[in-house]
């Protein structure tokens, strides 16, 4: 997964949260694209229906991403415990992250959704 592949190389907590925000923004962009396609396919080019599709599908994808990243956190926590037992050092401490992880992804996704909706509203 995107985050767990990079987490072992990230040494600071701030950089780890930056990666999570990027993951959320990427998820929000994907949700906006899929939602726009769904809105056009389902309702035609009417702006209000298009925006409903963007928002709904985007939020569903953000929730799914947060759930998947929470699973990555649990997997990584088990791996960190195994490394600690072997006497190896892990740079990223994963304590107190189960709440922050999905919330940060959702925050990044919602920021992206807000930008997309604002851009659609300006046209």
Summarize the structure.
The protein has 123 residues and is mostly helical. The chain is built from four helices and no strands.
Largest sheet: none
- The rounded distance between the terminal residues' Cα atoms is 36 Å
Helix content: over 70%
| Low-confidence residue ranges | 87-97
Q: How confident overall, as mean pLDDT?
A: 59
**Helices and strands: which structural class?**
mainly alpha
Shape, per Cα inertia axes: elongated
Number of helices: 4
Number of beta-strand segments: 0
Run of helices and strands: HHHH
Strand content: under 5%
Radius of gyration: 17 Å
* Number of structural domains: 1
Describe the secondary-structure layout.
Layout (H helix, E strand, L loop, with lengths): L1 H6 L5 H31 L3 H39 L14 H23 L1
Helix pairs in contact: 2-3, 2-4, 3-4
Describe this structure in words.
The chain is mainly α. The chain has helices at 2-7, 13-43, 47-85, 100-122. It has one domain. It is elongated and about 40 Å long. Keywords: Membrane, Plasmid, Transmembrane, Transmembrane helix. It comes from Deinococcus ficus. The chain crosses the membrane at residues 20-41, 53-73, 101-122. This is Major facilitator superfamily (MFS) profile domain-containing protein.
Identify the notable features of this structure and list them briefly.
mainly alpha, 4 helices, 80% helix
């Amino acid at each position: 997964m995107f985050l767990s592949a990079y987490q072992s190389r990230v040494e600071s907590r701030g950089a780890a949260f930056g990666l999570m925000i990027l993951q959320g923004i990427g998820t929000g962009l994907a949700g906006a694209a899929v939602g726009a396609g769904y809105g056009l396919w389902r309702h035609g080019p009417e702006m209000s229906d298009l925006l409903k599709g963007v928002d709904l599908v985007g939020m569903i994808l953000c929730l799914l991403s947060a759930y998947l990243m929470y699973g990555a956190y649990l997997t990584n926590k088990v791996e960190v415990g195994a490394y600690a037992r072997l006497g190896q050092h892990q740079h990223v401490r994963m304590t107190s992250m189960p709440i922050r992880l999905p919330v940060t992804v959702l925050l990044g996704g919602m920021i992206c959704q807000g930008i997309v909706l604002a851009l659609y509203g300006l046209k």
